[in-house]
Amino acid sequence: MAIEFNTTESTKIKDLKVITPSAFEETRGSIWTSYTTGEVGTLLPKDLFFKHDKFSVSKKNVLRGIHGDHKSWKLVSCVSGSILQVVVDMREDSDTFLQWESFDLGGDNRQMILIPPGLGNAFYVKSDLATYHYKLAYDGDYADADEQFTVKWNDPRINIEWPTTDPILSERDRRL
């Protein structure tokens, strides 16, 4: 079984990458690799590497985000359930500022999204339960919630087409 990744550039947002690993399918199910330093690791800037992983388990109709910072690279995927992944360009100097792109992740879709610094990250849970995986790379210490930017999930400047008008939000996201 060869470990291969198909990496494509977003057609909407500069520097955003979509990574699809190859999978070995057989009667028991399937198996695939989500990360190697020689393939996915080379997509990061020189001298930067993934430092830690996080998982988020969320119920149906939960919307998390739009959050981000200006130093973290995030490799995200949905390892169980299904979500609508949304990425928003929040880099004011970018020619794709305030543009967004969405991806259906989870289920039989093994795609991963590599999100560079300055892009907002959000997802909406479509299944009864979903497990979301973040792999994080950054210089220095982790930029936790108090150091991150937060954008209102339904900001009219962005006009994201969410599958609901009444999502379950965190206190942080409701305060906006």
UniProtKB/TrEMBL annotation:
<dbReference type="InterPro" id="IPR011051">
    <property type="entry name" value="RmlC_Cupin_sf"/>
</dbReference>
<dbReference type="InterPro" id="IPR014710">
    <property type="entry name" value="RmlC-like_jellyroll"/>
</dbReference>
<feature type="active site" description="Proton acceptor">
    <location>
        <position position="67"/>
    </location>
</feature>
<dbReference type="GO" id="GO:0005829">
    <property type="term" value="C:cytosol"/>
</dbReference>
<feature type="site" description="Participates in a stacking interaction with the thymidine ring of dTDP-4-oxo-6-deoxyglucose">
    <location>
        <position position="142"/>
    </location>
</feature>
<dbReference type="InterPro" id="IPR000888">
    <property type="entry name" value="RmlC-like"/>
</dbReference>
<dbReference type="GO" id="GO:0000271">
    <property type="term" value="P:polysaccharide biosynthetic process"/>
</dbReference>
<comment type="function">
    <text>Catalyzes the epimerization of the C3' and C5'positions of dTDP-6-deoxy-D-xylo-4-hexulose, forming dTDP-6-deoxy-L-lyxo-4-hexulose.</text>
</comment>
<feature type="active site" description="Proton donor">
    <location>
        <position position="134"/>
    </location>
</feature>
<dbReference type="GO" id="GO:0008830">
    <property type="term" value="F:dTDP-4-dehydrorhamnose 3,5-epimerase activity"/>
</dbReference>
<dbReference type="Pfam" id="PF00908">
    <property type="entry name" value="dTDP_sugar_isom"/>
</dbReference>
<protein>
    <recommendedName>
        <fullName>dTDP-4-dehydrorhamnose 3,5-epimerase</fullName>
        <ecNumber>5.1.3.13</ecNumber>
    </recommendedName>
</protein>
